[in-house]
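Journal club prep — side note

Before the paper discussion, L.F. wants everyone to see what a predicted structure for a comparable chain looks like in token form. Sequence:
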Amino acid sequence: MSGVWNVGNIAKFQANLIPNSRAFIFEDVPITFKELNERSNQMANYLQSTGIKKGDRLAVYLQNCPEFIYLFFAAAKLGLILVPLNLRLVGRELEYQLNNSGSSMLFFHAKFFDNVNKIRSSIQVDKDKYIWLPGSDTDAPPCPDWAVRFHDHIDKFPFTEPVLKEQVLFEDPLGIIYTSGVTGAPKGAVVNHSQSYFKVISLTGTAAHGIVFLSQLPLFHSGGLFISLLQCVGRGMTMILREKFDPVQFCNDIEKYKVNVVFALTTMWRLIMDSGQLDKVDRSSVIMSIGGGERTPKALLDKLKEKGIKVGVGYGQTENSAMTVLSYEELQLKPGSVGKPREWTEMWIEDACGKRLPPGEIGEIVAVGPKVMSGYWNMPEATANAIVNGVLHTGDLGYMDEDGYFYIADRAKDMYRSGGENVYPAEIEKVLCDHPRVKHVAIIGVADDKWGETGKAFIESEDGKPITKEEVIEFLTGKVSKYKYPSHVEMIEEMPMTATGKIMKVALKEKHGVRLDKVD
């Protein structure tokens, strides 16, 4: 698809169609679509005054807040490229993403003063383009003399649509979303306006005016920004948003706002269940629930179903969001599946030579469609490896059944060979996740004199007490083949996780001295 278009038009059109409807409610303060568009315009006019221009990168190191949302749509209107930064980043991690993206402007909350100040001398942000916002943290350090207070300047700018010096096209980059880095250094997936638009029409299909959507995902995450926020604005829904996730508040918001659609990652659902608050609120308004982020144990899904929350699952990546979806009802018929491809996505299984594989055979999951990223920012080699002749190579191993449902076996880099047999840790991890005392588990291939490689299971228990290797083997007996049993079990106090609840196996290997190289 080509032509003059930008995602900022979505806010403009909704302001014209449903100006007085609530676009989002942040910390109990409603913002209408008219206000959303006006504030985004004001932000765009302010940005233009700073000299920033189409194609420049605008980094955002902010907690969830209305300004984040206005910046997103303002950047879209002007053809700027938004770079949302993970709030857990510090030091070299923060420096790397700012320099890799070439960001020339940085918006950050006052609580992050120290993190930004420590790396100022080694990043490329222009001296007059450090912009800080107070946020809600009363313990934040005092205002520095090297940054500009955002609210001292914004109010003097008009609410009118910005006058563009250069048209923004469908193919122009909109955002650089860095991967979680669970298998190595983060890569910046470039998402353009066209891909973002197709995500909106893929996720909901039709207008959903009046639907209330609850998500407390961080906006720096693809799921928070593109799957939640953009979908809500694009379809005229009302999004309930908080500065950060709190399981009790999450449950209370379901009742308070009569929420219809709920989106939470697996880790969040665990915390929600642990809080006990779900039993104390009226959940009858909920018509759809969405989960994801990591493997979701069937036991957790069943417990949620008992509460009237039927959570569906899906499969996607930063590089190609929302590829498949599976309702709770389908999951009962296709246990372990992640569903069929959604609209605007075609998927299949390939072997190492690029040959399509028949149902039942494990290979790499590949995909094509208008939602696939443009590539990795400043990484031509990584882009060439990921997108081959227009086909996205996900790096995930899986298979498809006769009915077209997809199943994930594992990350290609996580597979190991034991006694000549391929072993996919995710298969064993999925079984162990249903052990009543296992909170998190990660299995890694380690060198073995007899078998070449064997599995080592790192386990974080629910009660903090050790789980023996014998208990693990007993639980796996009859569920997976013996050659897949881990030969080693190590208990850890806390699993290293990304901000979105994915286990960081690289960090786990480094911390516990596991070999990073594979045995061929």
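L.F.'s comment for the group: Confidence is low (pLDDT under 50) at residues 516-520. Keep this in mind when we get to the figures.
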